[in-house]
Amino acid sequence: MSKYSLMFLYTILSVLYAYGLTIYSESKVLYTIFTLVYFSLLFSALYKPISYSYVFLSIFLFLGMWLKLTLHLIFDYRYVEPIGAFYTANARMDSVLLIAIIGAIGVISSSIIYRLTKLKSTIYIYENYIFKKPIIYKFYDTYRIYIYIIILFITLMLVYLNIVYQIQLTGIVPKTILIYPLNAIISWTIGTGLSVLLLVLFSLDVKFKNALEIKYLVFFAFIVAITSIGLLSRGQYVFMLGAIIVFLLFNYNSLNNLSMKKLLIYISSVAFLYIFVIHNVSLLRGYYFSDISIQSSIQGFSIPESSIPESSIPESSIQESSIQESSIQESSIQESSIQESSIQGFSIPESLHKILRLAVDRWIGLEGLMAVSSYEHKSFELFLNALKTKATIGKIDIYQYISNAHYKDMDNMKFAFATIPGSMAFFYYTGSLLFVYFGMLVFSLVMLLLEYYLYLWYKSALLVSAIGMYLANAVAQFGLMPINFLKSMFFTFSFLLIFKLIKIKKV
């Protein structure tokens, strides 16, 4: 971003900070430190950016922590995600801010280390590499239309089979269990593999022609739209296409055949396809989720002994959380029929609440820290038990009990919903701020290095923009069934390594 863009952004954020400061009822000094740290985190990402994954992760954390808290202070509305016993246990928001500050400092530290080692930024196309075109590119360039048709056919076939046989749909327990690990491979192929394959092919165009055709980028957006519908996931489309748009904004001047006009046309096409995705995903979700009882969100619950160690959850804590969840969820249910709510004595329309819920409350972060900070039985044993959790049909993740999420009361043999703690909250299962710092530092460094070495392999800022988004999401959303996250990472980087090995070296 330019200096003037940053100045404009921080002017707006400073106004929000000043307003939030007058409302924040606990330590205003700590809220100010919290603000300075998260402003620094965002600045370290946007000014002379070093990595796509770092840019995306910093934005996710900023939205999920600082902006979410500040807008909740200003607009005074309930948190959408469950927060466990935060209110009934008389927990303090200052404690939450302290964890968030320590975690963000860990992320910033990774950026400082990366810059001190003078590793090259992966954001830009630095030069036009002039190679003798290898056989693999000549084959691709000659038969690209046929290759795209094959990819389209495979996409449509897998999406159709996935929807009909419910192999891996978001929020639904698989009805078709294939030979291990075919369910995971099909899910990865639809959600990641096909998109990454196209980006690898497009990277060859950038490498040997220094060009990207808009029509092919639109085709890519269409493939992502179809796969998003096939998984019942609107978020996949937003994240994947968001990464590509960010890459183009950084690099369109470096590509021979792109201009701002063409870029705007592409963004318009992406927006149109997003409407298509929203419509179809909503239709399919309405069909598959039509028999979810809303009353399940305000019922009491019991904890199966096999899910959590006996020492992890005291009875009094369970009862308090249950009472709190009932009141919060009941008001959330009633909220949909309310047309106006209060904002510091004024009235705001329900439409603004919807915007806030979609633009702010969908980002993971603050609620996870609120739930875990108020949980009395944090320990390394709890952390290790959560770390070892595997996705099993009918099994509920530990965090659903800690946060008192209403998802735990649904039919877990049919539906597979869950709320996510986020990486900072997950590391705070230990109760150690030092562990949060080093956990975020190590995660961020690994993320940066994976992207950097992928850039060295492929010399493709286009490819690493998408992988950077993938890595940033993995770090930001870490904490729910960690072993599944490792499987997905294994599939993705194994595919990229194999493809790299079969490519003919440049001459």
What is the topology?
Blueprint: H1 3-23, H2 28-46, H3 52-75, H4 93-116, H5 135-142, H6 144-165, H7 182-209, H8 214-231, H9 234-251, H10 260-288, H11 315-335, E1 340-343, E2 346-349, H12 350-359, H13 366-373, H14 380-387, H15 398-402, H16 423-427, H17 433-458, H18 461-476, H19 482-502
Antiparallel strand pairs: 1-2
Helix pairs in contact: 1-2, 1-3, 2-3, 2-4, 3-4, 3-18, 4-13, 4-17, 6-7, 6-8, 7-8, 7-18, 7-19, 8-9, 8-10, 9-10, 9-18, 17-18
Summarize this structure as a short list of keywords or feature phrases.
507 residues; 19 helices; mainly alpha; two-stranded antiparallel sheet; 65% helix
Would you mind describing this structure in some detail?
The longest helix is centred in the middle third of the chain and has 29 residues, at 260-288. The two termini are 36 Å apart. The chain is an all-alpha fold. The chain has 19 helices and two strands. Strands 1-2 form a two-stranded antiparallel sheet.
